[in-house]
Amino acid sequence: MDDLYKDSKLFFGLTPDQCEKIIDSGFIQKFDHKSILFHQGDPARALYMVINGRLKVSKLNEEGEEAIIHYVNEGELAAAISCLQGKNYPVFAESVGKTEIIGWDRDTITRLMNEHAAISMNLLNIVLERFGDLQQRFLELSNERVEQRIARALLRLMQSCGLKKPEGILIDFPLSRQDIAAFTGTTLFTVSRTLSIWTKNGWIKSGRERITIIDPHALMVFAENA
Amino acid sequence: MDDLYKDSKLFFGLTPDQCEKIIDSGFIQKFDHKSILFHQGDPARALYMVINGRLKVSKLNEEGEEAIIHYVNEGELAAAISCLQGKNYPVFAESVGKTEIIGWDRDTITRLMNEHAAISMNLLNIVLERFGDLQQRFLELSNERVEQRIARALLRLMQSCGLKKPEGILIDFPLSRQDIAAFTGTTLFTVSRTLSIWTKNGWIKSGRERITIIDPHALMVFAENA
DNA sequence: CGCTCTATTGATAAACCTCAAATACAGTGG
DNA sequence: CCACTGTATTTGAGGTTTATCAATAGAGCG
Predict the structure, then answer these.
(1) Residue B71: how many other CB atoms lie within 10 Å
(2) N or C: which end of chain B has fewer CB within 10 A?
């Protein structure tokens, strides 16, 4: 049951045997909460896949302000782009909660791409999909109000990391107001205020770094019409 | 001298002969100002390269508000991603000024990728580079103020489309206040006000859909420190 | 229990948008 | 060449959204 990552899009079109071999050719790393996987500017050494847990990929400006580009879930990849390009990481990655990953260094991934055409294709598709996501988020950041963006963020995270609980759907990792702010391009104060209102509305429940969505439909309607 | 597009990154590692053949296998299209190349949601039929002129690639939301994702200059590609994915265009593309392009339909580009490994690699690199650009712009949109973003926009456009003139560097295509607004995530009014100030400062000169940058350095300093 | 980190809330200010009106500009056809 | 027309642009007033700052409360951990 902890082999969900073997269904990764990276392995489409490969036999279980091939997958095993590929997995064996990587190296495993384990992290606790908030361990830094690599810094922005480090030379790209490897490509990573999350086995369990989660990575936060963000970009920092000169003042150290953060914009979260992407949360990397089970079976998803981190650093694919810079690893393929062979440049420095343009982003920063850290674990969110206890996290286990496989890494393949550049030489290995290059070899694997040559041996398995499917790997190349899958990598390409994964990158292209991410590009589409980022474009969509760029549009939203450009044209929507803060509250609308926060609603969309919660719905996205619910979609990808939601855990059904009796009282609603829990976003199943430590997620602070500051994280949501960095994810939506606002401040933790505005996030806090907004979540307070939604809690009063009965749309969500929230604690310290924990958010449960009670009424996804209300959020959806809000995100579309607000 | 109108063969600048033959230096496109798409052709890296190919002989002039091979390039000729590839170019011959495409179809040429010519557009006037503001002709629509494809709509958001259309099925992706082809991949395009700009021969001369320019394309504006943007994304629209349900209300029809626009966010400009990218200006495509001579030798650069449009629709690469959706063409590779074989999905619908997630964006909208129109010509900016008189524009000439080459198109390769999906079958052709697939064949070319199989015949020339370099094409595949180049395409990948082009897409990856664009991804990096978008990430950077996402960060800026997320963490910077409007005026700072406008400054960066002018500098970027100057970089890629600047034409040296006695009085300064002209951004060499019809660029309205509304365009700059859609490029930076603000309104045409705010852009207009900002440009007015900068004109008084002597940093730029501007007319109807025309902007000349007099003092790039001042803008640069402003973009970094403001 | 005390410490540290996170979250809440209020007051205030700044940034930015919206709307309206006036003005400038480029192209068109007489 | 000029008036006309349709855009693009400017500018102001006023309001909304959102950030900033400060102070307090709460949660979790050793």
Answers:
(1) 21
(2) N
- Is the pTM higher than 0.85? The answer reads yes
What residues have CB less than 8 Å from B222, skipping those under 6 apart? B147, B148, B151, B203
- Rounded to the nearest 5 percent, the helix, strand and coil shares of chain A are 45, 25, 25
Q: Mapping DSSP to helix (H, G, I), strand (E, B) and coil, where does residue A209 land? A: coil
Spatial separation of the C-alpha atoms in residues B162 and B21, rounded to whole Å: 31
- Region A64-87: mean pLDDT is 95
B97 interface with A at CB cutoff 8 Å: no
Write out the two tokens for B211: 């902007």
Q: Residues A106-129: pLDDT tens digits?
A: 999 999 999 999 999 999 899 999
- Tens-place pLDDT, residues B166-195: 999 999 999 999 999 999 999 999 999 999
Proximity of residue B25 CB to strand D below 7 A = no
Closest Cβ–Cβ partner in B90, B128, B136 for A135: B90
Q: Do A62 and B224 touch (CB under 8 A)?
A: yes
Token pair 């810079």 is found at A82
